[in-house]
Design goal:
The structure holds two protein chains of two kinds.
Chain A (H helix, E strand, L loop, with lengths): L2 H22 L3 H21 L3 H26 L14 H22 L5 H18 L1 H12 L1 H22 L6
Chain B lengths: L2 H38 L15 H10 L11 H18 L15 H5 L10 H9 L2 H11 L3 H32 L4 H11 L3 H4 L1 H14 L11 H4 L9 H26 L14 H23 L5 H28 L4 H32 L8 H4 L30
Helix pairs in contact in B: 1-2, 1-12, 1-13, 3-5, 3-6, 3-12, 6-7, 7-8, 7-10, 7-14, 10-12, 10-14, 12-13, 14-15
The chains are: A mainly alpha, B mainly alpha.
Chain lengths: 178, 416
């Protein structure tokens, strides 16, 4: 087994275990810490794919910004003594959740194995990306793709985010006449 | 051994050297800070242990090691132990991409390049430092929450809000330098400054000031050290920590200071270079050390000079002053770079904005002073501008002159 396979197995175990921890911990802080661990292991997945830029952005945005806001809310609202007490009122969701997980995993396996994504497309995409990374460097290749190939989706996403921010301001603002 | 294996060995050894160097620097920073602060306050400072007090850090370390490490009964054990370790880990990791010299400091052979004076020469250097230091808030928030103490939690939450607010400005104020350099790599940013023949502080005076202010807030130093405000929050998240765990938090704070100073020196003052004088063997470390020491001294100077600002002032300053100015700086720099103008155009624009902001600030300060002299706050300005409702302790009618505060306080009949 080569180093890449070992790294993949370790990371995959950590990612799945931490994702499982998110839904099973009774203390929301520990759920949140598992989510951070999960996001960090995803960043390491990007590193094994030699995409250091995406890995860094993953840490910067998700672990560094989004989860800090989660932490802010969760630490403020967590009841005394930490965990949620009393019987688990959502026990019935376990059955439904496992059923849906099996359907999702089955769908993914079928779509990967029966060739619904053409092999040629995968190879072409991978080679194109590797060539761009080799030619410009990691961050530069990403910027090239973002601002040339995908500039329209990028701009649209920007507008969408501005709308979301404005919506949040309107919803949370206390007006003078109220 | 292959080149890859040699690279791994070199990275490990360099990591150990840098960790040892940072820990030593931390130990002596505590001494230097106490001595310099003492000078500012017309005292002598610690000078008993060894010549000039040089053994003081050793004495402090011994004392800390033998102190009882207290843990509150209601603390969450796992996170309480994790938090200080996490803080130090993040602080040490962020330093990995700081260049202390060029790639060819020891020569141009592959082995000499593998031993160049930085742990890692990655394509996204500055982003990596920003990403890792954005994780620093976890150590503080987890420490505050796991202490099982309201004051600690409040200190931790303040810290979370503060760091998130100022991170935005940090990212935007760095953008100007990155546009000039055209790269995220720390070594290449210094090369770009050598190539263009300037330090970026000349082209980016506004960006330099904005980054400096935001960085002080990011490392929780005075005057932005609200998370550990002694008077209001009994030292915030640090309250329940003692002994070595407490000194781990101190260690993280000082190492973050050193990292921030190094980033400032690299981005704005040309890193290890000084004209043509960085070719001599060993000289890069001296220039780098002098620049970092200069910023560390400013950190101490600010702590000795400025009073801590209030929480609402902190938030208003971060979102309403720092962030718009960062956006303005990024926009002006983008225009200068896009139209291929000279670097001094950007520098002049930056200086002009600094001048305008200073004049506005001065005029507002004068208006406030006039309000204070009359003793009556006019209805038009309103007390809300002086002190917002969220931090006001008593209800005062702003149209009345201030009287004795006895009628506003509650009767002390309700004893618990």
């Amino acid at each position: 087994m080569v180093a890449g396979d070992i790294a993949f197995l370790v990371l995959a175990t950590v990612a799945v275990a931490s994702a499982f921890g998110v839904v099973t911990f009774r203390n929301p802080i520990y759920s949140m810490l598992s989510l951070i661990l999960n996001l960090l292991s995803l960043a390491f997945f990007f590193l094994t794919l030699e995409s250091i830029f995406v890995a860094t952005i993953q840490v910067l945005i998700y672990a560094g910004a989004v989860m800090v806001l989660f932490l802010f809310v969760v630490t403020m609202l967590t009841p005394k003594g930490g965990g949620i007490s009393g019987p688990d009122r959502l026990r019935w969701q376990w059955t439904a959740g496992i059923g849906l997980a099996i359907i999702l995993a089955g769908g993914l396996i079928i779509s990967l194995l029966n060739g619904s994504i053409a092999d040629g497309a995968k190879v072409a995409g991978m080679n194109g990306l590797s060539a761009a990374v080799a030619r410009y460097g990691n961050a530069q290749a990403f910027g090239e793709a973002l601002f040339h190939g995908f500039s329209f989706p990028f701009e649209v996403t920007g507008v969408l985010l501005v709308i979301a921010v404005l919506g949040a301001v309107v919803l949370s603002r206390r007006f003078a006449h109220e | 051994m292959s080149d890859f294996a040699w690279g791994v060995v070199a990275a490990l050894v360099k990591s150990i050297i840098i960790i040892v160097a940072l820990l030593t620097a931390f130990a002596y920073m505590t001494l230097i800070e106490r001595r310099v602060l003492a000078r500012f306050q017309r005292r002598v400072g610690p000078n008993r242990a060894g010549p000039l007090g040089l053994l003081q850090p050793v004495a402090d370390a011994l004392k800390m090691a033998f102190k009882e490490q207290f843990m509150p009964g209601r603390a969450f054990r796992f996170t309480f132990l994790l938090a200080p370790a996490l803080s130090v880990f993040v602080a040490l990791t962020a330093f990995a991409v700081i260049p202390l010299g060029d790639r060819t400091t020891w020569g141009t052979s592959p082995i000499a390049r593998a031993w160049a004076p930085f742990v890692s020469d990655i394509n996204v250097g500055i982003l990596y430092t920003l990403a890792i230091s954005s994780l620093a808030v976890y150590g503080i928030v987890l420490a505050g929450w796991s202490s099982g103490n309201h004051y600690s939690l409040l200190g931790a939450l303040r810290s979370a809000a503060q760091m998130v607010s100022y991170e935005v400005s940090i990212g935007l104020s760095v953008a100007g330098v990155l546009m000039f350099a055209g790269t995220l790599n720390m070594v290449d940013i210094v090369h770009a400054q050598v190539h263009q023949g300037i330090w970026y502080i000349l082209a980016q005076p506004l960006g330099f000031i904005l980054y400096g202010i935001a960085a002080i807030a990011e490392v929780n130093r005075a005057p932005f050290d609200l998370p550990e405000a002694e008077q209001e929050l009994v030292a915030g998240y640090l309250t329940e920590f003692s002994g070595l765990r407490w000194s781990l938090f101190q260690m993280a704070e000082y190492i973050n200071m050193i990292t921030t100073s190094s980033v400032l020196a690299t981005l704005f003052l040309g890193g290890w270079t000084l004209g043509a004088l960085h070719g001599i063997l060993g000289a890069p470390f001296i220039w780098y050390g002098i620049k970092v020491a200069f910023f560390l001294f400013i950190f101490i100077w600010l702590r000795a000079t400025l009073p801590r600002i209030r929480y609402d002032q902190l938030m208003r300053f971060g979102w309403q002053v720092l962030l718009p100015l960062s956006v303005l700086n990024a926009l002006c720099t983008a225009a200068v770079v896009a139209f291929d103008l000279q670097w001094w155009v950007s520098g002049l624009i930056g200086l002009f904005i600094i001048l305008v902001v200073s004049i506005i600030y001065y005029l507002r300060l004068r208006a406030h002073r006039q309000v204070d002299k009359s003793g009556i706050v006019p209805k038009s300005t309103g007390l809300d501008q002086v002190l917002p409702a969220s931090v006001r302790l008593v209800n005062i009618d702003p149209s009345q002159p201030p009287t004795s505060p006895t009628h506003a306080t509650e009767p002390a009949a309700t004893t618990p």
